[in-house]
UniProtKB/TrEMBL annotation:
Residues 1-12 have a biased composition (Acidic residues). This is Aspartate--tRNA ligase, cytoplasmic. Residues 1-49 are annotated as: Disordered. Its EC number is 6.1.1.12. InterPro entries: Aa-tRNA-synt_II, aa-tRNA-synth_II, aa-tRNA-synth_II/BPL/LPL, Asp-tRNA_synthase_2, Asp/Asn-tRNA-synth_IIb, NA-bd_OB-fold, NA-bd_OB_tRNA. The lineage of its organism: Eukaryota, Metazoa, Ecdysozoa, Arthropoda, Hexapoda. One of its GO terms (molecular function) is aspartate-tRNA ligase activity. It is found in: Cytoplasm. It comes from the Eukaryota. Residues 229-359 form the Aminoacyl-transfer RNA synthetases class-II family profile domain. Belongs to the class-II aminoacyl-tRNA synthetase family. Type 2 subfamily. It holds the Pfam family tRNA_anti-codon. Keywords: Aminoacyl-tRNA synthetase, ATP-binding, Cytoplasm, Ligase, Nucleotide-binding, Protein biosynthesis. It catalyses: tRNA(Asp) + L-aspartate + ATP = L-aspartyl-tRNA(Asp) + AMP + diphosphate.
Amino acid sequence: MGEEDKLEDTEAAVDGKSKKALKKAAKDAEKAAKKEAKKSTGQAEGDKEEVDVSAGKYGTFGLLQSKADDKNRNAIFTHIKDLCPNIKDQIVLVRGRMHTSRAKGKQCFMVLRQQQFTVQCLVNVSDTISKQMVKFASTINKETIIDVIGKVSSVPKEIEACSQKLVEIHIQEIWVVSESKSQLPLLIEDAARPVKDDDQEGLNIKVNQDTRLDNRILDLRTPANQAIFRLEAGVCRLFRDILTNKGFVEIHTPKIISAASEGGANVFTVSYFKSSAYLAQSPQLYKQMAIAADFDKVFTVGAVFRAEDSNTHRHLTEFVGLDLEMAFKYHYHEVLDTIGNTFTEMFIGLRDKYKTEIE
């Protein structure tokens, strides 16, 4: 009797296990059927999600080899400084560096920099822009050179962080031309940030001078340094143009000379084959020679070297000198008037032609 009860319990356990297995199998079959039905009825939608609609509109350029049959050879680029509401809705091609980027949901905001000019760019998921393209844009390293094709659009509110405050670019294509390293010794936005004694934001971020000089190429990309060099070029250009219009002749004087040209400044001695020579600390002698040679009015723009051991910024051992020399007819006030008018015209030229750099 006891053996029969034991046998019945065993059979009941087997039947119970079978019921659980069958129940689980039924659930799995139901899930598989639903999955298959969804796959069969929504095949078009599934294919649409898997296909990259932006294929061929983003990626990395190969090595630029200046081939004769390059289709991009005649491409017309638009400078960032020329982006304004006047060209709203136009499709432009812009090349610049990735300044900053910020991905948010299905869109990515980027700031593209070209020299000291910046513009905001936007790429977001749409019927023509895929998630893959947005992801690709968000992973581009800072300072990477990229080509962007997009439509110029006006913005409802000024973009304070960019030089082009009234427009942005809605990206249609984006290509990496030259990729930078992911880790840079300094960030351009940090190097460009003005140093303030009372930092209310509490960031207190600054780049040391040693770091700047060790990585001078990166440091020169900041808007301030870009503006300084352009202003320097502007001063020399205005100096030349103004004096040329006044009848002056530009001359180029020697910089390696056999004897000190002035007695008021120390000179650098250099080895000149089997003898010694000196770096010119002034073009004065040669200007006077030109006047005596009936040039009447001359000027020169060139390097000046002075061996003055000084730690102040007003006594440089090397600098670019702007010198003029002229003969006057009756009174030395003729020279003073010429110098005064030259300075006045130079300042007016800087104000009118280099307003962006000064600001």
